What does this fold into?
Amino acid sequence: MTDESNKKQPQPNDAINTDRIKQRTLLGDANGTDKQDVSHSTRFQKGQSGNPKGRPTKSKSSKASIGATNNKVIEISEHTYQLAIDQIILEFADKELTVKVGDQPIKMSGREALAQAQAKSALNGNAHAQKDIQNRIERAERIQLRKKVADAIFWHDYKTVMTAKLQTLADEGSAIDEEAFLPHPDDIEINEDLTIRFTGPTTPEALRKCHETMRFREAFILQAELDRRLAPKTDKTAGMGALLFAKNYERLLPARMRYSDSDWLNAVWRTEKINKRNLLKAVKSAWHDALRDKGGLLDTNVKRGLRFPGIKAAENFCADLHEFCHEATNSDRQITETDAEELCDIANEFGDQLKRVNKR
It folds into this structure.
């Protein structure tokens, strides 16, 4: 036999041993541990945490809190977006549009125009878009109504609570801090359509303006009596000019701060009982109080014994007020139509009072 034939042929077991040697070399195990043993001895295995106790799990409360927070953020964002869309839709519904009906342009609200367009589109067999907008308007109006109801309930409860507190203070004879009761419960009107109207001051600054108006009213009442005494006996309208200003100044006050008929009689009666010397002092002091917050109008400008211009001044004021009301809404003056209407009412009432005085 040749030398080649005498060489030992590789056996199957030798191939297995060779594979084991490769595995030991790759795994870095010099002790001859087989693959199965190595997998049990090493700490890091595929698909298993290196921590023998496993990864710590988050508490259920933490997961629930995070989930609730995320849901709340999403809910607030969606609500804010929906409110913005609703506002745009309501503005469109109330906006005045010019729509051509036949050959004639007609002014109508967006809601009315939509109703006509919906009917027309329905007759043409396509009312989907108009119906969708109509549904949105109805939904927005329902939300608006719920808000009105909530506001009405809030202010109704406010009036009830504050009225009870004021009554308690009055019964105890305690001093009342007016600024702590703004708006005053008597100055809040809840209308049938659930709109809220404030007829009096709602801020400390507005309250100070009301007190200023009341001081002017008192100054004019005293001035009217002084004018009557200083005027010639033949002057039948003496004092009426100042008294007209007193009454019309009062119209700027909320109802709870105005004089009743009996209050007016008592106020005039008190001035008639003052002697002339004290009346002169009272008039000067009243004008000092009324003008103390008016820049440039110091009490030194009001001389003792100075008479009010009288009916002529009232007539000029009435004419100027009418002109102002006429031009106010058509100019750059910061005045609303409602304010202009109220001023017009004052001017008209002033004019009627002047007519009655001049007939005497």
About this structure: The chain has two domains: 80-199, 204-358. The beta strands are 96-101, 104-109, 188-190, 196-198. The two ends are 164 Å apart (CA to CA). The chain is about 65% helix and 5% strand.
